[in-house]
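S1.2 Input.
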Amino acid sequence: MAEKDVTTALDNLVPAAQYRGSLTPNTQRAYDQIKWQDQRAKPAWSAIQTEMDVPVPTEPDMFPPVSQNQILDGLNEVRAYLSAKEKG
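S1.3 Output.
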């Protein structure tokens, strides 16, 4: 699983939050120093940490493994379909 950063966690909790400052250091100090400009409440650092602990699927987890034979079988099916379509 991929690791979430502070910016992603914040966006999950308060989508498109309005604030000034940088979360690039990915630390509590950076989070504490942003200037909150959103009308919604700024989440507590504990909420950010909890959100960051939620696993994010990475590409291998999102897509099942496919063998070369499965790819070739699919390609052959497409070729057969296109051939039949050309014939009418």
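S1.4 Remarks. The first strand starts at residue 19 and ends at 20.
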